[in-house]
Amino acid sequence: MAEIRTLQDAVAELIRDGDTVALEGFTHLIPFAAGHELIRQGTTDLTLVRMTPDVVYDQLIGAGLARKLVFSWGGNPGVGSLHRFRDAVENGWPRPLELDEHSHAGMANRYAAGASGLPFGVLRGYRGSDLPARSATVSTVTCPFTGEVLAAVAALNPDVTVIHAQRADRDGNVQFWGLLGVQKEAALAARRVLVTVEELVDTLTPVPGGVVLPGWVIDAVAVAPGGAHPSYATGYSVRDNDFYENWDPVSRDRDAFTAWLKDSVYESAGGRR
Amino acid sequence: MSAHSATGDAGAGQAGAEQDGTATEFTPAELMEVNAARALAGAKTCFVGIGLPSTAANLARVTANPGLVLIYESGAIGSRPTRLPLSIGDGELAETADAVVSVPEMFNYWLQGGRIDVGFLGAAQVDRFGNVNTTVVAGGAGRPELRLPGAGGAPEIAASCARALLVLRHSTRGFVERLDFVTTMGHGSGPHDRARLGMRGRGPVAVITDLGVLRPDPETSELVLTETHPDVTPDQVRAATGWELRTVPEPHTTAPPTPAELTALRRLKNAGRSDV
């Protein structure tokens, strides 16, 4: 059964140096507050996993926490490049970043296989692409029924998955809705699960289609109102597009980024952004 | 960026006006967007990439194809945004959608299941067979690779949609003789490669730029110039292309944007972004 913890305690307890960690969220419900808590705690040598590493991963990479990134698209959506990510890949700053690179379809099936307890996922993918040549986690499998050669992708089972959701009750049952991305699969594929929520309630209000992850598949729930900012939580907040646009000049410059880290993460109160 | 007269005459610098007073000057970028929207006439469903494809697909929905179903990889099916989204995951895309599905479902059931007509993609680099690089660009001797965002959904979108459209600005940096990395296969190295690899869709059928339109030759699958925009010559397009671009005997001239198209495009852009 999930325990209700502070964000600081939950991160300290569940995420360790060297872990493979997925902070999932497909534009919506991105767990920024948890990412910033990781930076404050200095949890390092992480293998970061995510389909769409965007600004929060730019921050984690820039802060030097990541040794490897497993992903399928790394950019600032609608704005341009992730400059901290690029600086790490192109120049090794603040440290070199190893990559395991996939397509979205491949990553989605890697998580689904992980959640299903299977060793690999199968899809009609990667054909004609140079991607498989650079990844040890893409191969092929021959269909035993038709003989068709299909892509096989290794299951992803993170040590820890962190997701952000709208709300939870006191038993740690979690409800979330809107664009769901791959959060459910990433949570079920993981060995440990931390969910940050907008609010804790006595009783969950039924929401048609509002996915519930029962408390017994979750290790900890931490209350973090606004914890998805600058992304958003449907029903609670809207996407702060200005933040994403303003991130571009901050992230282009190592000194501006370092100053941002100091002001907005290390010296912030810790609850949110 | 220079403006063209919508009347197609050489009135450079003249602010032409229709009788109703609608301004008719337009930029090459606007013509690219309008032309990309027109390419969606007749399509039922479109898998929309962010940026130029999203602009074109939303314009199509208010001009050439009101019934077009927009599908965003973030999970929204049948979105009807009133403003251009900054991101494929902006809230309005989900709130105005017929259905919202998870990302694994989107790629497995809807895309791989063969339910989508057109995949509309942007690109950093494209070669003469419509293959696309969005991963890395070689930096030259002793220099590091330049990192691009990566594949996203593109390899499977271009493989599984019934056909694909590409839209990007025309330059020798984008239209290259040889890709540094093939992220997404277009036509490989010729007409039989897609069939050999068991790809189900036809692949790229047009590349729409701010100078004209390139389409694959039915015999060789090599992209050839079939259309130039008003006031653009085939030589100008060749100069902006990194390979020896072939041209059909008499390339068409793109029809300039109608006042209605221009008005709709500018209204979409001026409406700002969702969630602001």
Automatic annotation (TrEMBL), chain A:
Keywords: Transferase. InterPro entries: CoA_trans_fam_I, NagB/RpiA_transferase-like. GO terms for molecular function: CoA-transferase activity. Pfam families: CoA_trans (PF01144). The keyword Transmembrane helix does not apply. It comes from the Bacteria. SMART domains: CoA_trans. Belongs to the 3-oxoacid CoA-transferase subunit B family. This is CoA transferase subunit A.
Automatic annotation (TrEMBL), chain B:
It comes from Streptomyces armeniacus. Keywords: Transferase. It holds the Pfam family CoA_trans. Belongs to the 3-oxoacid CoA-transferase subunit B family. Residues 1-21 are annotated as: Disordered. SUPFAM superfamilies: NagB/RpiA/CoA transferase-like. GO terms for molecular function: CoA-transferase activity. The keyword Iron-sulfur does not apply. This is CoA-transferase subunit beta.
